[in-house]
Write a structure and sequence with these properties.
Blueprint (H helix, E strand, L loop, with lengths): L1 H14 L6 H8 L4 H28 L4 H18 L7 E2 L5 H32 L11 H18 L1 H5 L10 H10 L6 H20 L5 H16 L6 H5 L27 H33 L5 H14 L9 E2 L1 H9 L5 H22 L4 H16 L1 H10 L2 H16 L2 H23 L1 E4 L15 E7 L7 H5 L11 E8 L5 H16 L3 E5 L3 H9 L9 E4 L2 H13 L1
Parallel strand pairs: 4-5, 5-6, 6-7
Antiparallel strand pairs: 1-2, 3-4
Amino acid sequence: MIRTVRTVVQDVTDRVRLRPATALRESMAEGYDARRLRSDIMAGIIVGIVALPLSMALAIASGVPPQHGLYTAIVAGFVVPLLGGSRTQVTGPTAAFVVLLAPVSVRFGIAGLLIASVMAGGILVLMGALRLGSFIEFIPYPVTTGFTAGIAIVIAVLQVKDFLGLTTEALPEHFLERAGVLVRGLPTARWQDAAVGAFTLVVLLGWTRVTRKVPAALVALVAAAAGVWVLHLDVSTIGSKFGGIPSLPPMPILPWNQPGPGGEPFVLTFGVIRALVPFAAAIAMLGAIESLLSAVVADGMAGTRTDPDAELVAQGTGNLLAPFFGGFAATGALARTATNIRSGGSTPIAAAVHALFVLAVVLLAAPLVAYLPMASLAALLMLVAWNMSELKHVRHLLRAAPKSDIAILLTTVSLTIFFDMVVSVTVGVMLAALLFMKRMAELSGATLVGEGHPGLREPLPKEVVLYDVAGPLFFGAAGRAMASLETLAGHVKVVILDLEDVPAIDATGLVILEEALGKLGRRGVYVIFAGLQDQPTKALAKADIVPVEGRLAFTSSAEFAIGMAKARVAG
């Protein structure tokens, strides 16, 4: 018993290995000179210019004042790259989180949002410590494409209020009710806000055709704010709606001391923690998926290689720390990461500089931020939603994918829109897993071998039968694969199971195999396992399925098994 406990502890210890700052250490080991520093500083400033309006817009979309988005970009954006496994990834608030965070802020207020972010951070650290980074790649493509497209639709619809300057009641938690409120509020649309929003959108779309050296967001938002000021347009701005942003750095706070729903005092109870668990788990899962997918794209652009487990630990650490300075959930941001690489950023220093730039703007230019029109921020998020929808990939899937994958895609999109991310990702992954198991079960089976098998140089004696077992013997396929053994004729004395094409056996496969061996043993049939691979060999040994004189034998190939069978029936 003591030895078993020690073995388990050792296994866990061997598995849990924290490797912080992998990317930074590797970058410094290669040599870091003044040229790379200048390049990283310039890239960080450009990314900071892009991140500044996005961070505020995403905070507003998530249901909190804009400074919370800036604090997220500053704290998480500084900590994560220095601790992470990606050389070029930029971390901050992202559009994908809006669908998850907005309902949390409605139900639990700012305090609940910050606490859920802390919980998600803990989950991410645990995932990285347990080296689960590589498992994220098993999330099926139709699922990730589906919930991304669904998120984009939700984000775009929710920007209608500020884009058109609608006067509505407080937006409820769920999408359909929110859409109903927006439709009823359409008669209150204001032409000034709509004109500013349309102007911003036109500049955002057209500026990239002029030049990519100056970020389109900077030009569009500055031009819109200047136009509003010069023409004295009566539009909603960050200053009129939120009173601007404080000219202060992120200050230490306790998340549970922040306002609750509707600005009321927040009371932390076990019931609240329990209610936040599903949201925290979904935030962690989405954060892991988005950050690692972003890192993969970044590696392809920059020719680098990310340590996924170190990146998860770093993302978790950033999410643990940011809420204690007013920030909320953050993850790797693909658009900002791509901007970083195109601008010459090559080490984590560039992403850290982006956070310092945002901090500098908060300290030195906060009063100017108050002039940004809400309609312009809404236009920016509409463009973000359009870009993240990836309609080209959706159309390709609808045209080329199997019907089952199309069903998963449409189901995930619908659930994301009409329910929430927790439901959509859970159901999408479950459907994909069930369809995968069905396909694997269809590929698995045991076929009675006739003439033409490579192991047969001459016909088998009538007392010997050879079954070619193919595919994994897992819980979805084992019964189907071994069912054919039930129909053995009474004269059979030796059964050869060619397991060369069986890569894995799970617990269900072992149980069914044991039952088959028991039935054959009671009939006096001798069984030979041929060509066992490594995993099945170890699984059989752990289950005490070992060679037994007169009942069961193991051989390295079907050819040897046939020779053994012939000798047995001849004797």
